[in-house]
Q: What sequence folds into this?
């Protein structure tokens, strides 16, 4: 079974600091997408960033960027200049099996941004 | 763009009754929708994959007869919890996958439905 592992259950940083959330995944696919979703206290799942596996360039969305290491099957999320509104659960997700549309989610990292 | 709505956002029902939850993609067509269940402080657990015009595919351990899924159109999927019991109390989240165009591998999520069975 495909697995996604987030090794940091909780993290806490000061506002304006940079924080990196780690994620490793297990897939036999050669072409796939990887995702980071954010779930704030409202519990609405929000897409943060998406990475196409065949692209070597790391995806960037404003203050959010990824460090994608395909060979190592690592997909970390870096948040720069963190803001109070970044406080949330963050889930990493990868495709379940070849051609499948469903995703496998990691256990999540609870990130707290302190003022 | 890529907005998904869910209704109701919160429902309380008596044990033994059935509850229907609607999931709609508001500004795009979704050939595939997904239903998840989330317990407090845990990750999302996929219950079933809902394909427009065909039967849903349920994950192992999910009772088909208890969690009825209907995907009647490209913008609407419904989850009916039949004969609900207190152990069915949970947070249910749907997502929709873009039918075509950019981002076709991306799931967009509804705001969730909190179900409480008394």
A:
């Amino acid at each position: 079974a495909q697995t996604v592992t987030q090794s940091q259950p909780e993290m806490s940083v000061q506002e304006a600091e940079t924080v990196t959330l780690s994620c490793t995944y297990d897939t036999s696919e050669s072409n796939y997408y990887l995702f980071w979703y954010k779930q704030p206290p409202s519990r609405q799942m929000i897409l943060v960033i998406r990475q196409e596996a065949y692209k070597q360039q790391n995806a960037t969305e404003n203050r959010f960027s990824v460090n994608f290491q395909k060979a190592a099957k690592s997909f970390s999320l870096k948040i720069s200049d963190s803001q109070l509104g970044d406080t949330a659960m963050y889930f990493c997700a990868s495709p379940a099996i070849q051609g499948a549309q469903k995703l496998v989610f990691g256990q999540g990292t609870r990130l707290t941004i302190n003022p | 763009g890529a907005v998904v709505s869910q209704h109701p956002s919160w429902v309380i029902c008596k044990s033994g009754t059935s509850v229907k939850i609607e999931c709609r993609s508001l500004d795009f067509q979704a050939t595939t929708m997904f239903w998840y269940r989330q317990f407090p402080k845990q990750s999302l657990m996929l219950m079933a994959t809902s394909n427009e015009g065909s039967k849903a595919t349920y994950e192992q351990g999910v009772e088909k007869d208890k969690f009825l899924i209907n995907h009647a159109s490209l913008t609407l999927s419904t989850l009916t919890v039949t004969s609900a019991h207190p152990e069915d109390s949970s947070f249910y989240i749907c997502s929709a996958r873009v039918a075509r165009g950019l981002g076709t591998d991306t799931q967009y999520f509804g705001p969730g439905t909190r179900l409480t069975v008394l």
